[in-house]
Every structure is written in structure tokens, then in C-alpha cells.
Design goal:
By secondary structure, the protein is an alpha/beta fold. Helix content is 40%, strand content 20%. Residues 24-138 form the Response regulatory domain.
């Protein structure tokens, strides 16, 4: 049951199968009606659910429980959802964050992708769609990691530690730049469309613009190519997408 006099409500369904009970969903949402909808939806699928009603309690609970995934509203008391998302991705970049908000402007969606959000669902939404997106994010998180370290040219990448070096100097990559680079490495020599990259790296089945892919590849070129104006590793295949050639 939701408690109106507390910012955090821990609601867990007893006697769940171990695999499901160990999957903790943290919902950070201040609307009591939406809290009930999300709690019921995840509970009915067998997940353990914790509800927080403001940004600060959401961050505190995130740090204490280390959830499997976070469902996050944008318009929150105390700390805005954008700042909560950014902090989560800095502290635990592998934790999926699925944003649920009435804000639908393209600029806001692009900003959230830049901050590391894994997916975005606009209110009003279909519960089935949100559940599918959360489960897809969880599958991506638990996908076996075949490549831990990788080298090409004068670059050395450690995906486990999320560190990168070029010519023995540290290079700062964002969480999504690491994800994009890892997907390229795992699919070297194959032409990857912008739509595939949005789906597999960002988790979007559809998106109003693909410029976010181009912008991230530009950043990878600037950070990892000998000459970003004449890319050797991250090649453009005109009319088709991009290809990583180590």
C-alpha cells in the first residue's frame, strides 16, 4: 500500500520466484495515481517495487538499494528528473533508466539521451509498451559481455572499467559513447543503420530524429580517430549508416 505521509513506499510481493524477486524496480514518481498504476503493473509481472515521490528520496533509495532498473518522472519535487537521471548514470551507468513523462518535445528527448537515459515513454502511455521497454532494458543489461578489453590503432578500451586511453593518455567517454563503441566493436566490419543503433544502443524502436547517432559518432571520431576529418575506424557508408573498421 502507498503511504501518504512518507516519501518512500517499499512494496514487495511475497513468495516471488527467485529470479523475479531479485529484480528490483525503483519508481520515482510524485503523482499518487501514477504510483498506483506503476506499482500494480510491475507487481502483477512479479517484480519487487519501491516507490519514491521526490528526486532526493529517489536518489537516496537508489544508492541504498541498487535497483535493477529505474522508472523516472521528469517533473519531481526537490530535484528535477533530468538531474536525477544524470546522477544515476554517473554513479551506476549500467543501471537502466526509463523516463516516463508528459514532456514530449524532441529537444527534451535528445537531452535525456545525452544524459544517458535508456528509454523514454510519453504520458499517456500503454502499460504494455512501458513493460516491454523496461524488460528490453533489463535484457540488454544482463546480456553476456563477450568483450571486456579491446585495442585498435593507438586506442585501448576497458569496457568493464569504462576507461579509455589513446596514445597512453586517458580519454573521457560518456556512458552512451561507451555503449555505442562496444556495439561497433561487437559488430566490426558490418554496416549499421542509424535505426539499428538507436534501437540496440539507446533502446528506441522509433525516434523522431537520428541526429543523436551522428552526434555521438562525431564525438567518438574526435576522441579516438587520428584525424576526425578523415575517419579511419568509424566510417560513413552513405545512404546506409556507419561501419567500424579496426
Amino acid at each position: 500500500m502507498l503511504q501518504n505521509d512518507k516519501n518512500v513506499t517499499d512494496v514487495k510481493t511475497p513468495d516471488l520466484p527467485p529470479a523475479m524477486a531479485s529484480t528490483q524496480i525503483l519508481v520515482i514518481e510524485d503523482d499518487p495515481r501514477m504510483q498506483k498504476v506503476l506499482h500494480r503493473m510491475f507487481r502483477d509481472q512479479g517484480y519487487a517495487v519501491t516507490i519514491c515521490s521526490d528526486g532526493q528520496s529517489g536518489l537516496d533509495t537508489f544508492r541504498a538499494m541498487k535497483p535493477s532498473a529505474v522508472v523516472l518522472d521528469l517533473l519531481l519535487p526537490n530535484i528535477f528528473g533530468r538531474d536525477v537521471c544524470k546522477t544515476i548514470k554517473v554513479e551506476q551507468p549500467e543501471t537502466p533508466v526509463i523516463v516516463v513523462s508528459a514532456v514530449s518535445e524532441v529537444a527534451d528527448k535528445v537531452l535525456l539521451l545525452e544524459l544517458g537515459a535508456d528509454d523514454y515513454v510519453t504520458k499517456p502511455f500503454s502499460p504494455r509498451e512501458l513493460m516491454a521497454r523496461v524488460q528490453a532494458a533489463l535484457r540488454r543489461r544482463h546480456r553476456p559481455t563477450a568483450i571486456v578489453t579491446y585495442s585498435f590503432g593507438d586506442c585501448e578500451i576497458d569496457f568493464a572499467r569504462m576507461s579509455a586511453r589513446r596514445s597512453d593518455k586517458a580519454v573521457a567517454l560518456t556512458a552512451h559513447e561507451f555503449k555505442l563503441l562496444k556495439y561497433f566493436v561487437e559488430h566490426a566490419e558490418r554496416v549499421l543503420s542509424r535505426e539499428e543503433l538507436l534501437n540496440e544502443v539507446w533502446g528506441y524502436q522509433s525516434y523522431p530524429t537520428t541526429r543523436t547517432v551522428d552526434n555521438h559518432i562525431l564525438k567518438l571520431r574526435q576522441k579516438l580517430e587520428p584525424d576526425s576529418a578523415e575517419p579511419r575506424y568509424f566510417q560513413t557508408v552513405y545512404g546506409a549508416g556507419y561501419k567500424f573498421v579496426p
